[in-house]
Protein: F-box domain-containing protein
Amino acid sequence: MPRGLALNFDILREIAWSSDRQTCATLIRSCRFFYQEAAKRILHDPVNLSNDSDMVKLLRFLQPDHYARARYVRTLRLNVTWRLPRQDQRALEDIIAQMTQLKHLRIDRGEDFLKSSPSLGNALANLTSLRQLDVFYAGSLTCNFFKAMKSDLVSISLHWMDSKEDWFAEQGMDDEKWSPIHPVPLLAKWCSSLEELNCKRWYIASKLPTFTEVYPSMHRLKVEHDDFPLAAPYIRAYPNLARLSVSTNYGSDLRYPEDRQRLHEHRSRNIRDQEAEDGPGTWQHLEEYVGSLADLEIFGLTCHISRVMFSTELSDRHLEPLSAVLAYAKPTHLNVEGDSALLAHSSHSLPVILRESGSSRLESLVLRICLCEEHKELDVGAALNALASALAQLPLRRLRLRVVSCLDPVPSARWISIRHRVYETRKTPFAHAENTLRDWDVDVFMHELRDALPSLTDAKVDIIGPRGGDRRREIVPEHAHRFIMSGDTRLYEFR
Structure:
């Protein structure tokens, strides 16, 4: 570098922000400008406190200028419970009080932390800058913490305490005591600001009052491990909801008749609640659902949903419910994965469902089918041609189709060598499903589909197997007619 070359502060600042933490620590010792700028860079990354050593390092780093650097902290994660010496606790309280630009707080062991460090909880509650709060292992102390908070929160993740039993039942709560802890009344102080809520392990009361709180800015809701949730309280409280994700304790596996019966009864109740004369109606602007088919069935929504992505694979027992759910949702985008029952079901195969009114608005489809042992005699070629015929009736613009041969002629075992597996695979006769998949002409499929669907401008078809011989065909999107992928682009590809 030539002597006398001067770098202005903007360039020096870029150097600091492009450096890692260790380099920034070295820069801090080099000049007064970096003393501030490199410290900002270090504290821009999340500050994680997991043990006493982390706390000592933080105290030492923030100690200059009476902890003034604390104002640069943006994200703080607390994953520890402390019995601190009084001097250190006061110092940490002072530090938290000066975190005036802290935006995101995560407390991993909420009840334990608030019990062991109530004064630190008070210091955090007094902040006014927080916008995002995540609390895991929440309980009654967390509820008190919420009441004391002074920040206008935009996003909340609230995960109630894990237990082998229902935590709420363990507290001896009846329905009347549960109701105030429902997310709608519990978080009422953030009615005007809250945009996103993730609530996990809140167990529904069998009867709930009609909550009057309304959250006009709430657009994203995720409900996890909630036993048979009631839809009406959420619809009434969050009228402008755009994105919904549901994951109950029952949604992934409803094989037993008693579970199916309970699901049907709960679904009927949710539908009745929406359609009742004094009910909340249904959502008017729901753009996206991500979750299992059974969970959407449980929720019993009667509204249109623009984008639907099922997070679990479908089998024969899911296809009749799929038809019922799509009849209400009428999506423009659908993402489905499942076994070969999607093609082979006698009355509710996907080619049949795609001809029903629930699929009439479909413009984008992601479909993955795994051929399984149960349907090894399926004529896959004929089934795929039937699928193409159904697709030709839709206003389809974008397609992702993947067919995977999961018919393994050699059982998986550690003691079988690769060479032996290859030999056994080669000598084992092909099943009918494998033969018909191998002989199916994917080029003809693409050509006929394109002729039948002038709207189709973006399509990929992958045939995986059988036993090698993979094939891929693609229609490259034309820029002027590209399908606009709203929301998360991952919805539009295979998981």
